[in-house]
């Protein structure tokens, strides 16, 4: 098993290190049934929800989550949101001029102010491995959107600095400590080259036919591989 290393400076010793994403499964996912129409006698009529989709579930379980380490209060003003928190010895967010976003499209429903999370993370990966750091996947319920970045941190550690985020216009109130901030997914760097291969059409059609022989769970039982993040 590969090792990803995390560290904080001394003044962050009271917060959680990034933990496996499986510990942050949202309530809306837990409370959603895998199937609806289960009152029907014929199970073929039972319709699967997103909870029955292994690729979707994998997105919530992959990698590690770095959480917000203290409550922050969002107050919506006319020009831009105000953000405050109690422990000023450890800054959380800072606003940047909107021009710093250049021509980047702003996520719909968000302020065009470029906010930065002043994160305390150090990350080191094994040789040949990088990390994808991104908005927690499929977490559209969060009151912010973090930009995505791929960082090579095997030769030198990723160190504390600014991480870009946008805040939603429709949220006022407290974002609680423990809220997932970033998802960190390590991956091995490889060289890739595209190839047009029409043979995979027949392979895909054969797989599709095989899947029809099973009422449910074919992908999980025949294609899906377990991913471990501890």
Would you give an account of this structure?
By secondary structure, the protein is α+β, with helices and mostly antiparallel strands. It has a single domain, classed as Deoxyuridine 5'-Triphosphate Nucleotidohydrolase, Chain A, CATH 2.70.40. It is built from four helices and 16 strands. It has helices at about 25-30, 55-60, 200-210, 220; strands at about 5, 20, 35, 45-50, 65, 70-75, 80-85, 95, 115-120, 120-125, 130-135, 145, 150, 160-165, 175, 180-190. It has a five-stranded antiparallel sheet with strand order 2-5-16-11-13, with no helix packed on it. It has a four-stranded antiparallel sheet with strand order 8-9-14-12, with no helix packed on it. Strand 6 and strand 7 (about 80-85) form a beta hairpin. The termini are close together. The mean pLDDT is about 90.
